[in-house]
Amino acid sequence: MLAKKFRLPIQQWFKEKRKFITRKSDFFIVRVSSNNLPYSRFGAIISLKVSKSAVLRNKIKRAIFNFIYSKKLHEVPGKDILISVLPKASELTKQELEEKLKSLIPIY
């Protein structure tokens, strides 16, 4: 699991007026901004539109953070990355989810 210092404080992130680059697919919206830290931070937003079941939403969130942790993406310096999950992503398997994220995350 991803350590707390690598998690993006999402509420604070939206309050700040930051410039970010957006990448979009049918399954995710990825917003990337720079920070002045020696590591990257990641956040995930999964709404009720993805699934009414909290269990499925948490599985998706865990799969995203486990992918980031296993590929050591958090060790790359200076990026804040926010991943918004769209409703179609609930149909993906864990392997498909990882493949789709590989193509969208600019660090990878």
UniProtKB/TrEMBL annotation:
Record-listed E.C. numbers: 3.1.26.5
Q: Name one GO molecular function term.
A: ribonuclease P activity
EC category name: hydrolase
Q: Name one GO biological process term.
A: tRNA processing
Q: Any keyword Nuclease? A: yes
Query: Has UniProt tagged this entry with the keyword tRNA processing?
Result: yes
Which keywords, in A-to-Z order, does the entry hold? Endonuclease, Hydrolase, Nuclease, RNA-binding, tRNA processing
Give a Pfam family name: Ribonuclease_P
> Under which name does UniProt file this protein?
Ribonuclease P protein component
Species for this entry: Candidatus Wolfebacteria bacterium GW2011_GWC1_37_10
